[in-house]
Amino acid sequence: MKTADPELMRAINRFHVMDAIRRFGPIARVEISDRTELSATTVSAITAALLDDGLIITHQLGGIRDAARGRPRVMLELNPAAAYVVGVKLAPDQITIATTNFRADVLSSLMLPIRLQRQPVSVIADLVEDGIRRCITDAGLTMDQISGVCIGLPGVVERVAGICRASPIFGENDVPFAAELTARLGGVVATIDSDVNLVTLAEHWFGQARGLDDFLVISVELGLGLGIMHNGELFRGANGLSPDLGDLMVRPPSGNGSARLASVASETSILAEARACLTGTEHEHAFRLGRGMEKVVELATTREPHIMALLEHAGEALGFAIANLITLFAPPKVILAGATLAAGDALVEPLRRTVGELLPPSLADVADIVVHHWSDDIWARGAAAMTLRDLYGAPWNTTGPAVHR
Amino acid sequence: MKTADPELMRAINRFHVMDAIRRFGPIARVEISDRTELSATTVSAITAALLDDGLIITHQLGGIRDAARGRPRVMLELNPAAAYVVGVKLAPDQITIATTNFRADVLSSLMLPIRLQRQPVSVIADLVEDGIRRCITDAGLTMDQISGVCIGLPGVVERVAGICRASPIFGENDVPFAAELTARLGGVVATIDSDVNLVTLAEHWFGQARGLDDFLVISVELGLGLGIMHNGELFRGANGLSPDLGDLMVRPPSGNGSARLASVASETSILAEARACLTGTEHEHAFRLGRGMEKVVELATTREPHIMALLEHAGEALGFAIANLITLFAPPKVILAGATLAAGDALVEPLRRTVGELLPPSLADVADIVVHHWSDDIWARGAAAMTLRDLYGAPWNTTGPAVHR
DNA sequence: TCATTTAGTAAATGATGCGGATTAAATCTG
DNA sequence: CAGATTTAATCCGCATCATTTACTAAATGA
């Protein structure tokens, strides 16, 4: 049970101030005071401590002066150099890594197209470690300047325990991957999280859901993921487990029995089916080269009937699941993200149609379904943001209960 | 944005102390101090204020003395007479009302078997008002002693706005039922909430989920409801909407297309189908008398094939939905509640089997599915508890930031 | 009777947020 | 160009609160 003492008070208010500075860029103390509804005095005290700790910096010449009179505002912003973090995104066929500063600006990024599946955990950890070290060097930094590393991966992840319960990446279950990496990074703490949670946070911080406190993110990649933002907080299941959307059961395309969503609508299943129905055609070659998805996208633009039917089934299955999620959460926005969405309307149109058909009338218009095409390193940026989020809220150095120096 | 000030601190700690007293019955200050991790002094101060306000009372003669030496503990407990509240549960065919004291002990209860469907809102409000007044009188109280009224009803309810978005009870949507009743009760504030939320809270306070901070409640009555307890808090969708489980889409029994869960597994649908397949038999009469569910239960015990098949379909559909919910929330416990469960294993066994079949292996054992048969007035007790919960947390009289008198 | 033990309270201390007065730094005005 | 005005930020004093330390209360045990 968290007991409320003055220290907690300070921590809460400090977080609010940090959050306002992060969200509203260079911002004057008065405006922080307005937005947070804290008194000017309190804001002054907190920002003084933050400046003292080097977490924020002043930015004289405020630029736009709203009223031409009076003492000019001193703008405050995050000190980009206050901390550096690394974000990693693991996908079955590629590792993406990004180094960012305290403002979540990407300083360097790295993409390693490596097939991770079937590799032992230690090999994967080695690859990630090498990539992280390389990426840090690329950014002109050294390991001891790094405040934290966050690794996002598909599947069921228990963040607080640092354990990956199940993932297409690992052959085994219950992999303590956070500890595995922390051990390799010489004192730098690594955390893990579900990859969708990272996109969800990224959407909240930089993306289409800025300022929106309730929304869902559906990631459609080799696996399927669900991120839930609820009341401005990432929703995690009991024990901090992240749900795996692919494990949801849906109405199958054959119209008979039931099927796991992952077996109908994930990139993995789409590729497998596409390959099956294109065997013996001129297109088969692309699948052997690992260029299957490009071929599917290409054939979708030419409206190849088999592919269209296949994508329609996938879209309908996703629509079924999403309709149920909207029924449960009534979110004002649903964001679709992930590489598979390159297939475009052939996938998304049946999805929207199915959601429209299945949603109860009372919820017909609550959710705005949007597609967000993102570059790969943004996922890694989301991972970095996850670490920064902890740093912002952490009892930082002396910013805590006023250690006198 | 909620700013943290000393007053908030006090409110939080006061709530923790109240919660400890509520949960652990007669309890000494030392033990509160242990459990809440607040200092003995703080507990002393807070309990003094609570005593002063009459919210708790001392209970000398502590009873069991753990160590035979030392100054005896003074036990504290909720003052039953500190406040009285009324809980109401609306079902399509009956109104249940209960008056409780501050400890949520039921003082009087009332059950009105009235068919509410198709009645105009004002008529329903009149009926509820009359029932409330009657129930208060039965408890030996008067209206001005009542601190609050909470009405639970099936469907989609927006608690904070006091609006029922959609319900089988009302013919219309967006009914401002809370305002409707508050206007009739002469100053006593009425709130509304989804009926499952009330059971969920009741399970958390008095039921099978005491001390459990994550669990789901599935209510199977004329309608279907879902209650979610997450991190010790009732989970509500965006805008404070409560989800309606009946609107979820499931795999239909015919194995083709998809169907709304309510059309397969609610008591309404079960009765309709049972009536259809029993037309022309000796059993038909029971349905005309409105005794359909009793007849279904009776036939289930004799394993009548039609009924068994029907209940099996319903159980499978529920299992499908519940498997998906477990995938999403990974709750350690799922509680099934509601009148329809009287059908027993004919319904519950297929449900368990389906959940077992559909759950991904990684989640196979996380959730314990239990059935809870409850009497009707317990639902109303849950409604009362919902009001008490607000009272416990409210800035009470002078217990707030020390108004000097 | 008096030491011992446990429960509960009082006084002192320090952290915190807030309101009102004050200072700082610019523009406006005559 | 000097003083008035305006807006931003800070200083000072106060009230609240939780905590630590010392103390009192009320029982048992020797």
UniProtKB/TrEMBL annotation, chains A, B:
It holds the Pfam family ROK. Keywords: Kinase, Transferase. This is NBD/HSP70 family sugar kinase. SUPFAM superfamilies: Actin-like ATPase domain, Winged helix' DNA-binding domain. It comes from Kaistia dalseonensis. It comes from the Bacteria. The keyword Kinase applies. Gene3D superfamilies: 3.30.420.40, Winged helix-like DNA-binding domain superfamily/Winged helix DNA-binding domain. One of its GO terms (molecular function) is kinase activity. Belongs to the ROK (NagC/XylR) family.
